[in-house]
Structures are given as structure tokens and as C-alpha cells.
Amino acid sequence: MLSYAFRRLLSTIPVLWIAVTACFFVLRLAPGGPFDGERSLPPAILQNLAAHYNLDKPLIQQYLYYVGDLLRGDLGPSFSSEDFNVAQQIMIGLPYTFTLGMTAFALAIIIGVAVGCLGALYQNKMPDYVLGAMILVGVVFPNFLIAPILQLVFGIQLAWLPVGGWGDGSLKYLVLPVVVMALPHAGRISRITRGSMIEVMNQNFIRTAKAKGIGPRLTVMRHALKPAMMPVVSYLGPAASYLLTGSLVVESIFGLPGIGRYFINAALNRDYGMVLGTVIFYMVLIVFLNLIVDIAYAWLDPKVRNR
Amino acid sequence: MLDQNTPGQTLLKVENLTTQFEIEAKSFFRKPTMLTAVNDVSFELKEGRTLGIVGESGCGKSTLGRSILQLIRAQKGRVVWQGKNLLDLTPEQIRLARRDMQIIFQDPIASLDPRMTVGDIIAEPLTVFEPKLSRAQRLERVQEIMAAVGLVPEMINRYPHEFSGGQAQRIGIARAVITRPKLIVCDEPVSALDVSIQGQVITLLRKLRKEFGLTLIFISHDLSVVRLISDDVLVLYLGRIVEAGDCATVFSAPAHPYTQALFSAAPIPDPKLARQRSRIRLQGDPPSPMNPPPGCPFQPRCWKSTDICRTQMPPTELVRQGQSAACYHMDRPPEA
Q: Residue B292: what are its φ and ψ, rounded to 5°?
């Protein structure tokens, strides 16, 4: 198991290298630069700035500098912030984004799997239809529509929860953004769970479990849940990265100080270092999450282990 | 219907059992049709006997076996087991009764949970029915059973996909006998196996039957296999019993035309003998159980059928001691 994880980890290195390289050059193709502002600076100052950040060197040399720094774990300076470099800025936003994303992720799994299982076990009966219809609402409506509605109802009309902001970081500030982020994923997870659960429940070994005299609850817990989770797990990798990266809109609707905010500003200002840094950070995250998914696969299915 | 004079206690009594399935209507406006898979089946099974159930594909053999064990709920009739009608029990009561009535399935590998080790698969019934056992005691029981079915104890931590069909069926048998059941329904247990392996599994079942005092219901379309293991036999056609009796009598002198046709279609290993015998060739396929013919179910394909067969279902009559059949034109023994 451990050597399996290690092998998978090694195989991610070329993937990361290709992604960094592609990102670096594509970003430079975009017109404009980090110091093109509304108020144009004197050419001499621009010259100095460019020289300071090595922007006057040939592109290939800049690339080698960047990769060299990266290998030493340095994400480089931010062009738009004097006080913090890229790594520091990411670290400032990360706790918020991470808390939001992971809470939403957990909530999506719990709701999704529970609803999916109920739907499968009561296939084409009342609970299946009612839950299915409810969950569809979460999938169909975009978060920028659901968020203001929830703010209006729970924040203003009922005044149960704060409309936005991070406050002291307590639970009540988290509820609305987390629910908004979790809903669409809970919906998709529940559909995947329902489908695969129905398939598994028709398998011969489930019939065997019934014939053995294992009760219906144990049959589901011991025999059906694991195989039914296989397709769900493969969805969880991408879902986790969506939740961590895609909180952009939700963060701005609720005025939360996560990474998303830095990313969008950096892209608009051609802050090469910041954009690259954020992209690399997300990439590592996605690769890492996919690795976890692969390991979870091996745990769920003994046949994968020996490959 | 089977021989009432055999000594021994009745273990299982099936009375007028009828199992129907609703076939979904093809169009929204049509009513769903009913498929009668098991039709008015009655028999009695004595303790320690082995009952063979034979018939063509789709005649309701498996449905009958599963209806007895309540894996499929029947619509009408009674299944009397340990003084109670299983059809009246709650799901939880039936679950508890499964300790004494088990089943072995046809597809051995697909019937095992691919994510469990063999040891866990075999031990699982114990965790449910004898939860007080310690881990060590449970392991001991599992190893004991594995040895009894001819599995090497070293295999205990392997997964089902690492086994051959014959070994997998041994695992299926081990998990069925570990709770010391009284009745085991063997639902085509050897059909998916090579002939040489079939023999081994049949020998194993015969051995276990003796060791554990099992009563078996053995479902198969393979007459030679049924003959090898059964004391009694039921011949099913379109969900109905057409002939029943003790194995030796029925095989030596089949009375119902369908039984005769079925037996004459069974292959004989000796080509000389095979050439000598006269085969009865039936025309056409069995009628659809959704739309059974009037009268006797076999009448459209029967070479003996007359007007009465086309209007009335023939009653079940005693042919001779230990044999009964449902036919107006059955072969009766010469008057003594």
C-alpha cells in the first residue's frame, strides 16, 4: 500500500512540470504587463522595475530563473504587493478558503451519500421522488442565485444568521456560504450514489447476504456501501478541487477573505508571480487530492491493489 | 404428493404455492400482465431426504426454490416450516429462520462479495447468528468448515477473484453449512462448473449431507446429476408439477409424456446405446407462462393430447406406490 502511494506520487512530478511550463508561457502571451497602470510611469522607472524583477531578460532565461526558485520552494515576489511575497499572500488567504472548502466538502458527502442511499433503497417510491426533486433544486440553480436568496431569507427576513463576512470565524458565519457551496455537489453525489447503489443491490452477492440472514441494514453497510462508493470516490477528487478553487464567487458574495480574491485581482493586474503561484498551489492540491482518490480506490477494491 | 410412507419426520410442507411476477406494461395505457412462475405446487419433504427438482429452462425451478426460502414472496399457498407458515412471518422472523434454511447459488464467484476475504465471507453468518462467539472460536469454526469442504486453511485471507469456480462453490457451500442448517436449497449448484468439478462438488454435497444430517432440495436441469444425488424427484413444467415420486421409480418408469420426452432427450455417454434408443422429439418451445394454454400446460406439444386435455387440467393421480403424475393418458402399470 505504501509503495503504491509512493509510486503514484513520483508519477505526478512530470505532470506538475508540464503544467508549470505551460502556465508560465501562456501567461506571458497575454498583452500588457504588471506595471501598466492608468497613470503611466516614466520609461526610466519602468526600466528599473523590469530590471529588478528580471523582466528585461529573454523569456527563456526568466523561465529558468522561475523554475530554479520554484525548486527551492520560493514562489517569488508579488508585483502588486510590497509587504508580502506570493507564498505569504497565499498563506494569509488559505485558512479561510480551506475551512470553507473542507466544511462544504464534508457536508456535500454526508448529504449526498445519505440521500442517494435512501433514494436507492426506496427506489421509485415516495422518499426517492421527494428527495430527488429537492436535491435537483440545488443542482439546477447556480450559487450566485441561491446565495442572495438565502441571504435574504435567513439573513434579513428571519435574521437568524449574518448576511456575510467572516466575523470571529464562528459557525454562524460559515453556515450560509458552506450550504451554498455544498448544495450542487451534494446533488451530484446523491445521483451518483443512487445509481451505483441500485446497481450493486441487484448483484448476486447481495442476494447471498440476504439468504445468509444478514439483516437489510447490515447488508447495506457491510456489502453494498463500499462497492457503491467507487464512482462517488472518483467524483470526490475533482469535487474537492472545485470546492477549494471554485469558492471564488461565493467568497465575493459573502465578502470572505479567501484566496479567490487574490487570484482574481492578480489576473487583472498581470501580477505574473501571484497568478502562477496560485495556479501552482491549486495544481499541487488537485494532484494531491487525486492521489488520495487513487489510494481510496485501492482500499475499496482489493483487485486494484496488486496492479 | 411424494411418498407418504417413507419413515421420518416431515421437515417442510409446501401447499398450493403460487408465485407470480408482474410484468411491466409496454405502454402506459395497458395493464401490467402477470407471469405465473410457480403454479399451485404442493409437496412434502421428509427429514434427511434429498428432493431433486428438474425441468427445462424457465419452468420455475429456481423460483420455486427461492419462494420456499422467501427470497421471493409467493402470492398464494403455504410453506410450513417448523410448524409455522413462512408466508405469514415478518421479515425479521424470516431472517432468524434463515439460520436453519440456507441456499447455494448457481454462479459461485458472483455470489461472493468481492471485497471480503474468504474467512470473512464464511464467518459472516456466525457474526449474525452467534454473536457471542469470541474471535478465536469463530476462526476455529471457519477453519473446521473449510477443512470439511476441502479448502486449505491457508486460503482464509484470499479474495474470491483468486479462486476457480469449483473452489468458489466450495466457499459458497461452507458459508451455507456453517450455521448447521437443517435444509439447504441447492439452486443449480454445479451448472456453471466443468463436468469433472461437478462430480467433486456432488460428492462433497453427499458427504456433507451425511455428516451434518442435511435435507437438500437439489434444483438442476441435468438429469444425470439429479439422479446421482436425489431420493425423490419433482418434474416441473410451466410452473406445475407434472410428475413426482421417488427417484428410482420415476427414472425407471416415467409415466407422464413430458417426463418421458425429457428423459429421452438426456444424452447417453455410450454412442451405441444412444443410437439404439428411440428419441421423443418435441415440437416447438414451451408456451409463455404469461399466456398459458387452456387445460393441461403440456397439451400443445403432447403427442397424446385429446379433447379433454385442451379443456381441463388433469388431476394428480397415483401411478403406483411412490409415484404420481398429472395426465389423462399417462403410462399406468399393467393391472396386477
A: -70, 150
A92-271 is a CATH 1.10.3720.10 domain: yes
* Tens-place pLDDT, residues B219-270: 998 888 999 999 999 999 999 999 999 999 999 999 999 999 988 888 877 8
Contact check, Cβ <8 Å, B128/A213: yes
Are B220 and B188 a contacting pair, CB within 8 Å? yes
Across the interface, do B125 and A303 touch by the CB < 8 Å criterion? no
pLDDT at A56 over 80: no
Contact A209 B113 (CB under 8 A): yes
Predicted TM-score (pTM) of the model is 0.76
Domain range summary for chain A, segments of one domain joined by +: 92-271
- CATH code for the domain defined by B10-48+55-100+229-325: 3.40.50.300
The CA distance from A187 to A112, in Å, is: 6
Residues 6+ apart with CB under 8 A from A43: none
Q: What is the pLDDT of residues B30-78, one digit of tens each?
A: 777 888 899 999 999 999 999 999 998 888 899 999 999 999 989 999 9
Distance of CA B41 to the CA centre of its chain: 13
Surface of A (201-230) touching B: CB under 8 A: 203-205, 207-216, 218, 222-223, 226-227
Largest interatomic CA distance in chain A: 85
